[in-house]
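Trying the structure run again after the queue cleared.
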Amino acid sequence: MTTVLIADDQPMQRFGFRMLLESQDDMTVVGEASNGTEAIRLVDRHRPDVVLMDIRMPGLDGIEATRRVIATGARSRILIVTTFDLDEYAYDGLRAGASGFLVKDAQPEELLAGIRAVAAGDAVVAPSLTRRLLDAYIHHLPASPTTTPRPEDPRLSSLTDREREILTVIGKGWSNTEIAERLHLAESTVKTHVGRILAKTGARDRVQAVILAYDTHLVTPA
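Done. Tokens:
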């Protein structure tokens, strides 16, 4: 049974989410929050598998709430729900530690599939869409000096050459199938490499791996 916390300042939106989720045999709603502060408190109380986190809420918004939940080391995974595709705040949500984002007008089956994917440890945002999102808002990243070489990020030091190569193409938006075909590897081997990359770098999921590839300049914006 996947436990879900709904954080949204619109009562009708929360009601709609609850009705949909509780129609499923494998999901249950453990609480509702109308702002970020309440969401943090309820995450601590209920330890849900997944938090549906709205971005724009009064008081503490969903971005800061996500950041604080992740900072506690809670196992709960955050799924950002945003009003518009490529909302500028969705980028900040991913960097804060969310496992992906969905648009509020997504089809019910897309929302349910997204929750199940996040609960299983996968990322909801498609690799190509993640790349587009990061390219669109790359100006949020810290500027890097052009005259002084950057020291290598310690998160990359334990990666093998093959793992570094795969992290690079993950950042470019390649799926596991594309990586397997283009690098002439079995898809099961690619999955093993991806798992090792996440473990070695401390990335929570594939979305965070894409952000890492940008942060460490393995990938530059298109």
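The longest strand covers residues 27-33. Worth checking whether this holds up in the mutant runs.
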